[in-house]
């Protein structure tokens, strides 16, 4: 089963995003919103290994193939 987890929360102040990322474990893919990265001045060289910059088109494609979508 393929699950899509969408973390829609500010980067600081809550643990919601951290807890959502814990569900990914070792076999998931972490896609970061490019617009959100730009708004925060976050460069690709600063993100965690295994995560990568993404687009809304890629998010839409992931939602189409997902069996379940969880939103935090």
Description:
The longest helix has 10 residues, at 56-65. This protein has 72 residues and is of the alpha/beta class. It is globular, with a radius of gyration of 12 Å. It has helices at residues 16-24, 34-39, 56-65, and strands at residues 3-6, 30-33, 51-54, 68-71. A two-stranded parallel sheet has the order 1-4. It has a two-stranded parallel sheet with strand order 2-3. 35% of the residues lie in helices and 22% in strands.
Quick structural overview:
The chain has three helices and four strands; from the N terminus they run E-H-E-H-E-H-E. The chain has helices spanning 16-24, 34-39, 56-65, and strands spanning 3-6, 30-33, 51-54, 68-71.
Q: Topology of this structure?
A:
Layout: E1 3-6, H1 16-24, E2 30-33, H2 34-39, E3 51-54, H3 56-65, E4 68-71
Parallel strand pairs: 1-4, 2-3
């Amino acid at each position: 089963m393929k699950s899509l987890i969408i973390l829609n929360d500010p980067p600081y102040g809550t643990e919601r995003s951290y807890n959502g990322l814990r569900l990914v474990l070792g076999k998931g893919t972490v896609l970061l919103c490019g617009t959100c990265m730009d708004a925060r001045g976050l460069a690709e060289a600063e993100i965690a290994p295994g995560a990568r910059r993404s687009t809304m088109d890629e998010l839409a494609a992931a939602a189409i193939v997902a069996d379940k979508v969880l939103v935090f």
